[in-house]
Input
Amino acid sequence: MKKIFTLFILISISLSAYTQEANKPINTSTYIKCKSFSISKPLRDMPSLEKDVPQQINKDLLEHEASRKSSILHLEKNILPDPLVQRIPGSIALDSTLVNFEGGINNGYRPDATGAAGPNNYVQGVNACLIAIYDKNGNLQLATDLNALGGLPCSGDPIVLYDKFADRWLIEDITNGYSELTIAVSTTSDPTGSYYIYNYVFPVMPDFPKLSVWTDGYYSTCRNINNDTVALGVFERNRMLVGDITAGLTYTQFPNGSIINANTRLPGSPKILSCDGALPAFGTPNYLVYFTNINCGDTTNSIMIYKMITDTTLHTCQLVFDTALITAPFNSYFTGYGIGTAIAEPGGLRAWSLDGTFQYRVPYIKFTGYGSTVLCNTVNLGDSIAGIRWYELRQNDTTQKWSIYQQGTYGPNDSTSRWNSSIGMDLNGDISLAYNVTNQYNLYPGIRYTGRLAGDPLGQMTFAEQTAIAGTHSLNEQWGDFSESTLDPDGLTFWHTNQYIRDSTGAKANTRIFSFRLANSHTGIPVIATDQIEYKVYQSGNNLNVLISGLASDDKVVLDLFDIDGKQLSSQWITPASGQFEYKINVAGLSKAAYLVRIGNSKFQKVTKVIVN
Output
């Protein structure tokens, strides 16, 4: 006990010293104007490619991770056991996938599958330059090359998001020999239509770009692995959405970027929160997160959180250290680096562990009284068998302080590696987890998923693990850097895209796209199913009439009105009667536009969009 107490004191002193230094604000910002702007032809009018058409890729322009030398400060003698490992998987029956279909293929390099669902479509991007658009039953509508869309040579690493608050599609990609970053914003809600194309010259190579949606901008992180520079960009969302050619970005850098995910297999970008619920009030800071791990030479096991204070008028972004949340011990160190090392596959092959970073995305949902975000990363359970450490963080509305609400390590005791994960949360507060699986014996790399409901025991994935697609071969190539989970606009359905292996040569990876729900699968623990709530909002003269029925209880709910940028216009607490209520919101004086109406309390929330005339 004395040794443990002494170790705790040393960690606390080290963290305190780090906090004092890190708490200094980082003020240097640069406003970068758009280098070029264009409006593309409608994608549906471009020649359509086969979705698995081979692409010519200059690998010399792509990341040089395989040649990067690791300088691990591995403290093997001091590895602390992970006390949170969930060795017994969940047992609650989980429904099978709603849809489950084949995605695009990149013949010759890792796919880095990315994608998002809108009201009627799913759009997938595959490294380096393939974009495929499906209806929500999995029928391919078109596939095209990003070179044709943007007019610049595509270098790779696309990111696809759907901005549900504006009903627009976003595609981010590295272009022009890894010197520029291109953002494409759909001109309408139709992903097969035309796009506003914005090209920006970055001061550093914008590698590992990861895009997120926030009220005052589209936020992106990048990392130049050649010199460990971490770049942060805030793109002018309001101007991009209307095709304003003056839309610029506020650029800043994280000082001493080498300390982020140092000495690990994948020194990827730190992540920034992305809204999946209602947008926070305009001017609310966004947050940047990364982790530290003692077993990789850091002084603490912590989640590091930085506040990003953006002034859209002055074009500044101030990066301020917010807090360091001490986590339960974990081990993110894997022996070896590059192709042929780390996670064992059948046949003696090995895949990358992707252990150095929180995986994409970091979804954020605002509930009544607090905001919630979920995170996940790869950990070593022993003998280079991978598991998944995951967290739910909450930020108190009153104090604005972040805390770890729950944390767990998903690693059933079956000699199976689980990695390359992506985590999600629905508007009930239920959490999904989707990931790759393999072992060294007979389980080829495939895709599985699990989850938990908001009321389940903390730190546990309570649903029985499900297989989305099983692999049939091992991969003799570099593994992808990430997968992606997104939330359907209905607020309850999760969509996931990831790679798996069925190519007999082991030279390429297939991708899969599937969706599933947690809310329909469980009857043992009561939850509020928001899809059972009848929610009607319509305008009558100067009033918005809000009619709600089907509530599970008469607990107080809050009724909020926001503009499309997330600015709160009104708020009212209401006590239902027999699970229903009616309320009128005065909208006299509001401009003709789209607005968001939200109801909820600490147990649920539901958001709908309405047009005020």
Summary: Confidence is low (pLDDT under 50) at residues 1-23, 53-77, 522-529.
